[in-house]
User: What shape does this take?
Amino acid sequence: MVGETRFSELAGAAWWAGAVRGVLAILFGIVALAWPGITTWALVVVFGVYSVVDGVIAVVRAYEMRRTDPGWGWWAALGVVSILAGILALVWPTITALVLLYIIAFYAIVFGILGAVGAFRLRHLPGSGWGWFLVAALLAILFGILLLLSPGSGILGIVWLVGWYAIVFGVLLIIGAFSYRERLRNARG
Assistant: This one.
């Protein structure tokens, strides 16, 4: 019971991580859609910065939950994958659109797989919003597969696809985070 209380306290303090990640994803999507003629270099930089910030948030969450959540390693792995994808994009800003497409595609697939595992870990908690997190993870996997199936579609198509994906993904993360926060509030009485 003491461990559960500590978990509840930490989870209550950490629900915001999903909401912040969702807002960042939406902002990234809006930037991508607002400038459809964006250059490959600018897209690489925006993607790189987003991935690094998103990864740092996930690693911070893992660190906060390391003593109470046995699944903290999944959050850490998710964060490391995100940080590495962002650094890779920032180190080589002149990469071609095709290489960028593959980086984004594989990032989305790995992110989605790790996110689905994390969502399933929450399923035993009623009202945790795990279903929304699962939908976001499956959307990430589908997005990555679509990119791999159509590599010649060009950077403008990628920008639009990435923009809309990021907005929908961000909305799903925010809904899941607030659902989880509501569950925690109801559990506290």
Notes: The mean pLDDT is 82. The first helix runs from residue 2 to 14. Residues 15-188 form a domain with the Serine Threonine Protein Phosphatase 5, Tetratricopeptide repeat fold (CATH 1.25.40). The chain has one domain: 15-188.
